[in-house]
Amino acid sequence: PKLSGADIREKFLAFYESKGHTRMQGASLIPSDPTVLLTIAGMLQFKPIFLGQAPRSVSRATTTQKCVRVSDIENIGVTARHHTFFEMLGNFSFGDYFKKEAIRMAWELSTKVLGIPEERIWVSVYKDDEEAAALWREEVGFPAERLVRLGDEDNFWASGATGPCGPCSEMYYDFKPELGPAGASLEDDSRFIEFYNLVFMESNRGPDGSLAPLKNRNIDTGMGLERVAQILQQVPNNYETDLIYPIVAAAAKLAGLDYHSADAHKQTSLKVMGDHARAVVYMVSDGVSPSNLGRGYVLRRLIRRIVMKGRLLGIGKEREVMPTLAEEVIALSEGCDPAVAANAQRIVAELRREETKFGSTLEAGRKRLEAMLEDAAAQRNGSSTASIRGAAAFELYDTYGYPLELTQELAAEEGVSVDEVSFERELQSQKKRSREALKSIDLTAGRLLGELAGQLGTSDFIGYEHGSLRAEAS
Ligand code: ATP
Ligand code: MG
Ligand code: MG
Ligand code: MG
């Protein structure tokens, strides 16, 4: 029988408990660390211990941590393995064991406890970490032909521009072992998936970029629960695991679709809805409210993205999506965070309110567009062409959430075109303004916000599908 997501979570935590780790609560998605917008990894709550700024209460801990990585937003539904919201299982050593034990335990967990076949596993180590390479060979007999050396980008882990960091060693699963080791690249994600990262946390990066040794040598790890579920449940992507599929299926049902027979584009939209639904439910549960700033802005854009994807799939404006999707997420939440079920009413109410608000915005946009079309028609004055200025189309996009393609299509029905070139100019100058505004914000938070401005701000509505919103907007 295949392991469920809940089984995998429990096996991980129980295994590390049996190895002397204390099972601890994951932290809130709202970090106490002011340099990070949202919790992006299990280590964040332990950062003060790694830095020697807080005493350790135990020497070994294990957790499951809710994470949100807004920086992965453009991968959602595009890669099989990325989410904005995911669960990271972790084992931690605070100045206790180091590389040798971390490698031995990760191997035992992966092969014996979870039952991943040894010959399917590949390992990467940091390019000059000879010690880790030797330990993989000597401690678990790992073959050199599946051990790869990677550079700073993949195998030197840091939670931000400054702070604790170190070389890491990642474990990958091979979907196509029949291709053999010759010429294989771990970057080929049709063949490999990274599932476990062991960070040998021994340095602290200062504001000037230099590395100083930490007082203790620590272990920080992260295993993606949804990815391990994909591997063990033998499904083609994380979305089809028992951890997420019920949410995707609920979105499909709202849209009158069958996920498995829907085309790839619609499947992507359904995956985005499933992914973002988890993110927004957990964010609201942890106390984030929609707003135009920081975390609240992230939340608002994610909710709007869900609603817009739903509209584009043909879900009528009289039909709410958030309450249905939120109920699914809540029903699946127990093992990850029991507080979610306790907050259910508040979560559903808050999400419903925001959906209603966005619905009114879309409706106001429709009225604004009608006025623009009347103006354009009046100015036609006998000549055969009329157009909407880029600035006006940009207003519809920026204030009312209308993708350019939608404006173009609605305008075309009245024989009116849209000035695309000047729309693009408006868009670029807005991006420039938000980049400048972000320069003053702290590096880490600033980077995340910058990515968000670049990604949500401009590709927010990229999933537009020809015609499907028209019935709604007209
Ligand atoms: P990738 O290279 O696939 O983007 P990563 O190297 O950025 O992953 P880490 O920072 O090492 O990921 O995080 C530890 C583990 O958390 C990963 O090995 C993976 O299993 C999981 N993980 C990371 N990012 C995501 C995500 N966006 N969605 C789901 N799981 C993730
Ligand atoms: Mg990544
Ligand atoms: Mg990686
Ligand atoms: Mg990694």
From TrEMBL:
E.C. number: 6.1.1.7
Catalytic activity: tRNA(Ala) + L-alanine + ATP = L-alanyl-tRNA(Ala) + AMP + diphosphate
Domain Alanyl-transfer RNA synthetases family profile, residue spans: 3-474
Alphabetical UniProt keywords: Aminoacyl-tRNA synthetase, ATP-binding, Coiled coil, Cytoplasm, Ligase, Metal-binding, Mitochondrion, Nucleotide-binding, Protein biosynthesis, RNA-binding, tRNA-binding, Zinc
UniProt cofactor(s): Zn(2+)
Family the UniProt entry places it in: Belongs to the class-II aminoacyl-tRNA synthetase family. Alax-L subfamily.
Comment block on domains: Consists of three domains; the N-terminal catalytic domain, the editing domain and the C-terminal C-Ala domain. The editing domain removes incorrectly charged amino acids, while the C-Ala domain, along with tRNA(Ala), serves as a bridge to cooperatively bring together the editing and aminoacylation centers thus stimulating deacylation of misacylated tRNAs.
The protein, known as: Alanine--tRNA ligase
Naturally occurring in which organism (per UniProt): Coccomyxa viridis
